TrEMBL record, chain B:
SUPFAM superfamilies: FAD/NAD(P)-binding domain. This is Monooxygenase. The keyword Oxidoreductase applies. Residues 1-12 have a biased composition (Basic and acidic residues). Keywords: FAD, Flavoprotein, Monooxygenase, NADP, Oxidoreductase. It comes from Micromonospora inaquosa. It comes from the Bacteria. Gene3D superfamilies: FAD/NAD(P)-binding domain. One of its GO terms (molecular function) is flavin adenine dinucleotide binding. InterPro entries: FAD/NAD-bd_sf, Flavin_mOase, Flavin_mOase-like, FMO-like. Pfam families: FMO-like. Residues 1-27 are annotated as: Disordered. The keyword Repeat does not apply. Belongs to the FAD-binding monooxygenase family. Belongs to the FMO family.
């Protein structure tokens, strides 16, 4: 990162700080402290901390990583926040990350990956993982409109975004489970949804953390080309899990991506 | 970020033995950087140097982090009720926010726990040698530094280690400045400097004179108004007492809204005077002198309670002290008052007794070095001072960016020496630059900076160092 991109003057952060909101944080801590960095899972729009509490939290803890999952404001068990912005979400992530006992690895899913990318500019994470990242732009909207016009169109006008089973999960996931998950989905603030249409490119990360991008080529929300583009921005190639839906942490083969993330963290020298 | 091999106690046996000019052994610490002090500025120096890949040895004379903010430290100036005077967004490190659940103006105990969490979060303690004080810092050839340390209190042997660079973060609020007064030695009452004031119980039921209208003096006067049987507050001139809240928001946030809109100083001063007129009104009716300067020309005093207690008769404003008599204090206007306790809230002076004054271009030895950005010394590109600033806002953000700039300068010395050389030239050309509007000349104002002006200057320096 060159100095011309480094922003010292942050007038808005100083004189218009984000209004605090109560946040839900779930955790799974390994029984033995093994000196591994804590992981903070950040769910995407509509999802809450529950999406990670289902499988990934416990699995990460069983492999020795202290694991935390948060709900962005207005999601899950956090305080309702209909007017939340992308900036408020990023603030929530930085707040939770800074409250952890040690420097954390941020793991963002879907639009939560974009929130993480913004948080990385304000918090020197030990590393970051972007899972099926939704970085906004017209391409994502086009794909969503093609797959699910009735669920997507209202969001363009400030209504809720309704994702359906086909977008989020593969056919391997039993119908009953998929219905249960879709039933738990909430919605993001309309201003945050609109922000996805604009150009919400994040500032460069502080502290040069290593970044891993992963997703599925069969994801019906994030096209494979987007995965490649995001990974290239961080100087790498995406790790792919064919046959899985957008919600890699809930889909039938949820263990593969999380194992890949943990393997990467164990190998990545800078993430220790 | 491995933490196992790249640091360790500088041990003469473990590294190639060299000797300094006196023939004493020196352990060569290679590219490691030495940080003096583990207070706010020292901690952020360690963190940012580590983040840029440097090994760090930090020496701290106390047994804990937090420096001035750790009330257990014998040099700590904090008293039981110390609160921040800048609100959270201006106070916190820019990449490690204070918790949302904390108040706008946290208590000093919260500030200490903030530093302890910062140290743990970024694993800084393993780089700090506690209970070790630095007694000498000497330049040696190759723009490196010999740092001599020993256990705090002078026990144990002296050790010397050679470092690639040094960051001085020893703080400037620990060496009390005591003014001289005629007859002070004969005064029979109790005299203390604010540095030894810890708790309002020290004033309870007594007749108290507080000297000095800095933020500390005003705080102590307010506590005396609550606890003492009588309180006089002596000030040399009239000041602007800014409330901590204006228009329903922390005052510094309102002020920065104007700064961001680039409202000219004159207009801001006018607005400020107008706001004060609406809230506290004309202070001369209480006997307070009329300020002889405009707002923003002295270090801001943020105290909502002082005027309140003046208005309730708890604080009696009096002019400067002329001389002391055994049982009375004579004031500049000829009046005599009879306090039992005199508290001098007359501030502190920076001191660098471990460093030869000539290194700093401080020939008078007055603790007043000539620096660029209050951090860089002409002719010594591997030396930086962190936190030698008296900002009109929080200090920690400024220290953070100073140490980021220094870490990047050290990186440039390795990777792009021509850039570093150009930087060194700028340090020579611009040393002594000031980063504030016109301020009243005083030993506490020479390192006064406006936070916006200062941070813009640091941003420019970063761009010049690394830009195209």
């Amino acid at each position: 990162m060159s100095a011309s991109e480094l922003r010292i003057m942050r007038g808005r952060e100083w004189f218009r700080p984000v209004r605090p909101a109560r946040r839900e944080v779930l955790s799974a801590i390994p029984e033995l402290e093994q000196g591994r960095p804590p992981l903070l899972f950040v769910p995407g729009f509509g999802h809450g901390a529950w999406a990670f509490a289902e499988h990934w939290l416990g699995h990460a803890a069983s492999r020795g990583f202290p694991a935390y999952a948060m709900s962005l404001r207005g999601h899950g068990g956090s305080e309702p926040a209909p007017e939340a912005t992308l900036r408020a979400y990023a603030h929530d992530v930085v707040q939770v990350a800074a409250s952890l006992p040690r420097q954390a690895v941020l793991v963002g899913h879907g639009a939560g990956a974009l929130v993480v990318a913004h948080a990385l500019a304000r918090y020197p994470a030990r590393g970051a993982v972007l899972v099926a990242p939704v970085f906004g732009g017209w391409g994502v909207l086009g794909a969503a409109l093609r797959r699910n016009p009735a669920g997507t169109l209202p969001a363009v006008f400030g209504g809720p975004l309704r994702l359906n089973r086909g977008q989020l999960f593969s056919r391997e996931l039993p119908d009953e489970e998929a219905r249960r998950y879709v039933g738990r989905l909430g919605r993001a603030g309309r201003r945050a949804q609109w922000a996805l249409l604009g150009d919400p490119a994040a500032e460069p990360a502080v502290g040069a953390p290593p970044v891993l991008v992963l997703g599925s080529p069969d994801d019906r929300v994030v096209p494979a080309s987007t995965l490649t583009r995001v990974a290239r921005r961080y100087g790498s190639a995406p790790l792919l899990f064919p046959g899985m839906g957008h919600d890699l942490m809930l889909d039938a083969r949820w263990a593969e991506p999380i194992d890949a993330i943990l393997d990467w963290l164990e190998k990545e020298p800078a993430a220790h | 970020m491995s933490t196992s091999t790249d640091h360790g106690r500088p041990d003469p046996e473990a590294t190639s033995p060299t000797a300094n000019s006196d023939g004493r052994p020196v352990s060569d610490r290679g590219d490691t950087v030495c940080v003096i002090g583990a207070g706010a500025s020292g901690l952020t120096a360690i963190k940012n140097l580590r983040e840029h890949g440097f090994g760090v040895d930090c020496y701290e004379r106390e047994t804990g982090v937090g420096g001035a903010w750790n009330w257990r430290h014998d040099r700590s100036p904090v008293y039981a009720s110390t609160h921040l005077i800048s609100s959270k967004p201006f106070t916190q490190f820019p990449d490690f926010p204070m918790p949302d659940s904390w108040p706008d103006y946290p208590h000093h105990g919260q500030v200490l726990s903030y530093f302890e969490r910062y140290a743990d979060h970024f694993d800084l303690r393993s780089h700090i040698w506690f209970g070790t004080e630095v007694i000498r810092v000497e330049p040696v050839e190759g723009e490196r530094w010999d740092v001599t340390t020993r256990s705090t209190g002078g026990y144990g042997p002296e050790r010397t280690a050679r470092y690639a660079a040094v960051v001085i973060a020893n703080g400037h609020n620990w060496s009390p400045k005591l003014p001289r007064y005629e007859g002070l030695e004969q005064f029979r009452g109790e005299i203390m400097h604010a540095s030894s004031y810890k708790d309002p119980a020290q004033l309870r039921g007594k007749r108290v004179l507080v000297v000095g209208a800095g933020n500390t003096g005003c705080d102590i006067a307010v506590e005396a108004a609550q606890q003492a049987s009588r309180c006089w507050h002596s000030t040399r001139r009239g000041y602007w007492y800014a409330p901590k809240y204006v228009l329903g928001r922390p005052a510094d946030q309102v002020n920065d809204t104007l700064l961001a809109l680039r409202v000219p100083l004159r207009v801001r001063q006018w607005l400020y005077h107008w706001t004060l007129r609406l809230t506290v009104g004309d202070l001369t009716r209480f006997g307070l002198p009329k300020p002889d300067h405009r707002v923003y020309e002295t270090h801001p005093i943020a105290n909502s309670q002082l005027v309140y207690y003046v208005g309730h008769g708890g604080i009696g404003p009096v002019p400067d002290v002329a001389r002391f008599h055994p049982y009375a204090v004579e004031l500049a206007d000829g009046r005599e008052i009879d306090p039992e306790v005199v508290v001098f809230a007359t501030g502190y002076l920076p001191r660098f007794e471990f460093l030869d004054a000539s290194v700093f271009g401080d020939s008078a030895g007055a603790g007043r070095p000539t620096l660029w950005l209050n951090a860089f010394t002409p002719g010594h590109p591997t030396l930086a001072v962190a936190g030698l600033l008296q900002p009109d806002s929080g200090l920690f953000t400024l220290s953070h960016w100073q140490t980021v700039l220094f870490a990047r300068l050290l990186t440039a010395r390795r990777d792009r020496p021509e850039r570093a050389a150009a930087f060194a030239q700028r340090v020579r050309d611009r040393a002594g630059e000031r980063y504030s509007g016109p301020v009243k000349e005083s030993s506490r104002h020479w390192f006064e900076v406006g936070h916006a002006d200062y941070l813009r200057a640091v941003q420019r320096a970063l761009v010049e160092l690394e830009g195209k």
